[in-house]
Structure prediction request, 110 residues.
Amino acid sequence: MQIIMTAREFIVREIEKLNDLISNEVNKESNVQLKEELSETVHLLDMFNGYQISKKTVDMILELPDFRTGYSDYRIINDCESDDPKQWVELNINNENVRLSDGDIIIKKK
Prediction:
């Protein structure tokens, strides 16, 4: 019987092996660095799974440019099917308006 392993499970096993090597002082500096990179990968996989981000679901990733306008924010607005800015509503989550800055990314799903 063949056991099917996910990429996440594989990486976690490798991290466990690295922990043993690190505790036995085998290439400690290199193995600590690799462990940190693999731990970061697990974190990103968890985020991707949580938000259902994959090559099948992502249309594009946009990085917000720096327009060099001083300290200003990008705002996410629902135009409420109107061209009149008075009708627009700013995105509010947990009683806070969502503000983005240059360098932030937006993931547009398909």
